[in-house]
Design brief:
Radius of gyration: 26 Å
Shape: globular
Distance between the termini: 35 Å
Bound molecules: adenosine-5'-triphosphate
């Protein structure tokens, strides 16, 4: 179990530095709903961009989709969600709190010790009404996963892309689950974002592609900086597998509350397309030119949550260290995920320094996500940037007015190099793409 940092510290950092706030806070908040501030929104975008880049952009065999949150109600009958997207719920007879039956060890309420009811099944889909008439016929659901939108568009993806199987559809979008016990900050919420890939394959190749995607997805987290020691794979046991699934692995992360699921990868067999073909009356089989066979493709599904990744990236990047007798909190986020890439910091709010600092900020803004800060001491401003994981700070001092050079400070090593303003953008770009921050190189003049 990772005990590097407590959840309380992460929650407090998130609030203090503008990553995540409780939703509707001025009204007392709404349970398990969260708003993302200036830093949080950037980190979320960067996670989604990184996923899209690896799963869609860099591949020839995956296309993107964006399907509607509200779908025909029959979709959820065909998929099995109406009948069985349920969790067993127990209720305390004294305080009436409700719990997931799997979360309580005895038949006593964990809060007040009262007696619990027998479990009953509770459907996790949010219902709502479509149209101006409030009757049952207008009942629809908010999707609990983005996957079904991709299953029902299987034909479209194959026809439009003019590609052969194996072929994947990928989508990032909101999902909604009326979880009985949301919690652990943003780990389990009732509204969240899914990043899902549905990879359609020839049935006798499904095992190969399943193993392939388990590896790919595990490595994605490692490439983006998560320590391998804090990740593990867990295969689902027979009793845990969905009735249609052939196999399933969870990628688990060592969260402060213990090992928990970060992403699931399932071999869903031909269940989804068979169900939708039967219920819609559309033939969803695929004619394979190469083998001369017609079959219902199997589906390999890596399904990840943006917010859970967000939490794992934050926890893994969080470090407290002592620098010159003071504790500094630093998020050693991978530069591609860091909300702000470059902070522009004039040494002081001096009328001579400000114009040059503003000019530099203007030059950098179109190229990088930047932040300008001239309030309080330079040391404090460095600390603030460390806390949000900004890889580089550019400092403009009085000497800069004379020699047109500025200092770049590296978040991780605290090393500083001095570069001509004309070279600044190029230098930052190469450093952000991973070139080592070598103080002995080029214009290095001092080290801290
Ligand atoms: P759990 O067992 O934690 O409820 P699950 O197995 O039902 O999750 P999946 O349906 O496999 O989850 O969804 C895939 C991913 O979507 C999860 O690994 C997680 O990252 C994310 N996810 C699922 N439910 C939630 C939720 N309520 N809040 C935040 N993220 C979620």
């Amino acid at each position: 179990m990772s005990s590097k940092v407590s959840m309380e510290k992460i929650v407090s950092l998130c609030k203090r530095r503008g990553f995540v706030f409780p939703s509707s806070e001025i009204y007392g908040g709404l349970a398990s709903c969260w708003d993302y501030g200036p830093m949080g929104v950037e980190l979320k975008r960067n996670i989604k961009d990184a996923w899209w880049r690896t799963v869609v952009q860099e591949r020839e065999d995956v296309v993107g989709l964006e399907t509607s949150i509200m779908m025909h109600p029959k979709v959820w009958e065909a998929s099995g969600h109406v009948a069985s997207f349920t969790d067993p719920l127990v209720e305390c007879k004294s305080c009436h709190l409700r719990w997931r039956a799997t979360e309580v060890d005895s038949n006593k309420c964990p809060k007040c010790g009262g007696e619990l009811t027998e479990p009953r099944m509770f459907n996790l889909m949010f219902k709502t009404l479509m149209g101006p008439v409030e009757d049952e016929a207008g009942t629809i659901y908010l999707r609990p996963e983005t996957a079904q939108g991709m299953f029902v568009n299987f034909e479209n993806a194959v026809t439009i892309s003019r590609k052969k199987l194996p072929l994947g559809s990928a989508q990032i979008g909101k999902s909604f689950r009326n979880e009985i016990t949301p919690g652990n900050f943003i780990f389990r919420t009732r509204e969240f974002e899914h990043m899902e890939l549905e990879y359609f394959v020839k049935p006798d190749t499904a095992k190969y592609w399943f193993d392939y995607w388990v590896r790919e997805r595990f490595n994605w987290y490692v490439t983006l900086g998560i320590d391998k020691e804090n990740l593990r794979l867990r295969q689902h046991g027979k009793e845990e597998l969905a009735h249609y699934a052939e196999d399933c692995y969870d990628i688990e992360y060592s969260f402060p509350m213990g090992w928990s699921e970060l992403e699931g990868i399932a071999n869903r067999g031909d269940y989804d397309l068979t169900q939708h073909a039967e219920c819609s009356g559309r033939d969803l089989s695929y004619y394979d030119n190469e083998s001369g066979q017609r079959y219902i493709p199997y589906i390999i599904e890596p399904s990840a949550g943006v917010e859970r990744s967000f939490l794992a990236f934050l926890i893994d990047a969080y470090q407290e260290e002592t620098v010159e007798g003071e504790t500094r909190v630093v998020l050693r986020l991978c530069p591609s995920l860091a909300p702000i890439k470059v902070a522009v910091l004039p040494l002081s709010r001096n009328e001579k320094l400000t114009p040059l600092a503003r000019e530099i900020h203007k030059q950098l803004r179109p190229n990088f996500m930047t932040w300008y800060d001239d309030s309080q001491s330079i040391g404090r401003r460095y600390r603030r940037q460390d806390e949000v994981g900004t890889p580089f700070c550019v400092t403009i001092d009085f000497q800069s007015l004379e020699d047109r050079q500025v200092t770049i400070r590296d978040r991780d090593s605290l090393a500083q190099i001095r570069v001509p303003i004309g070279e600044l953008e190029k230098t930052l770009r190469t450093k952000l793409s991973g070139e080592p921050f070598d103080v002995s190189s080029l214009w290095a003049t001092r080290q801290k």
